[in-house]
Amino acid sequence: MYPLINTRNQATRTEALYLNDASLRTWTTEILSSQSINTLPEGERCLAKNIPVEEIAITTRQTIFYAQGGGQPSDSGAIGPRDHEPTFSVTLVRKTPDGKYLHFGRYADASSTFTEGQLVVQTVDDSKRNYHSRLHTAGHIVGLAMQLLMPEMKKVKANHFPREASMEYEGLLYNENKPIIQEKVDELVKRDLEILISWEEDCKESGDGDDEEGRSFDGRMRIASIGGLDHNPCGGTHVGTTGLVGAIVIRKISRQKGISRVSYDVSPGIEG
Questions:
Q1: Beta partners for 198?
Q2: Coil vs helix vs strand at 229
Q3: Are strands 77-81 and 119-124 parallel, antiparallel or unpaired?
Q4: Is a pLDDT exceeding 90 seen at residue 26?
Q5: Whole-model pTM?
Q6: What is the rounded distance in angstroms from the CA atom of residue 175 to the CA atom of residue 178?
């Protein structure tokens, strides 16, 4: 069993570097804690769904790993000592209500255990991050297309997970709306509009399914905009322009209890 290694202040917030620079794929930072999942407080243990309880949760001073939330899956990757091969495989990242980022996974072997204060290198899985970022940006493109075509329809939910990606709206859409939405989406991709990230004070607008993922502890809200044409509170990762998403396919339109779901997809093989 791995030893319990705790920081002096377990409530220390993790600085999420990807919020300001989503291009980072490697970063050197400091270990705050490393402990078995079954020793975590109950509220944190609940964040490790489908992760074996004997696996490990690591916290660091900073992170470049996106934590699952806001309709987007978490990053995966590795953490290791400086100037050495990675020794910890990261399979899931979650954020606690008090701002800690828990990197769930396992060591290559027991002798690889990190110690508090140790400097380590984080490495994010580049292809998976790019795919997730393209899916998330594609959702915003679909949302902008809907905003331009049917501004009266209110967005109620978004999902940017692979094979589940969709945008949901109050009101009824039908199959005849599909080619119209597809045409507008294609146009926005072709225009290669820049994805702009900014921060605003006291923003009260709802985001794309989970605006809390974009809210900082000092009350600011992170805003994602496609070429200045829209304004969405968002804590997710994005590619730099709409053109980098590649082709977006509107797969189907479905309806249930007055809510219409616009399902979409992108090719997983294009680098963002």
A1: 223
A2: coil
A3: antiparallel
A4: yes
A5: 0.89
A6: 5
Question: What are the contacts of 114-118 at 24+ separation with CB within 8 A?
Answer: 114/5, 114/31, 114/34, 114/58, 114/79, 114/81, 114/88, 115/5, 115/31, 115/34, 116/5, 116/6, 116/7, 116/31, 116/32, 116/33, 116/34, 117/30, 117/31, 118/30, 118/31, 118/81
Amino acid, res. 5: I
Residue whose structure tokens are 């605006």: 211
Cα 197 from Cα 239, distance rounded (Å): 11
Res. 218 pLDDT band, cuts 50 70 90? low
Of 70-74, 108-112, 167-171, 180-184, the least confident: 108-112
Asked if residues 37 and 104 have their Cβ atoms less than 8 Å apart, the reply is: yes
User: What tens digit of pLDDT does each residue of 33-59 get?
Assistant: 999 999 999 999 999 988 888 899 999
How remote is the C-alpha of 210 from its chain's centroid? 11
CA distances from residue 23 to 27, 42, 130, 223, 239 in whole angstroms, order as listed: 11, 34, 9, 17, 9
Nearest alpha carbon to residue 260 among 127, 169, 126: 169
Strand order in the sheet with 166-170: 155-159, 166-170, 259-266, 248-256
Computed over its alpha carbons, how large is the radius of gyration of the chain? 20
The tokens describing 103, both together, are: 């990197």
The reported pLDDT for the residue numbered 204 is 55
For 97-125, what is each residue's pLDDT tens digit? 999 999 999 999 877 889 999 999 999 99
Distance between CA atoms of 179 and 207, rounded to whole angstroms?
26
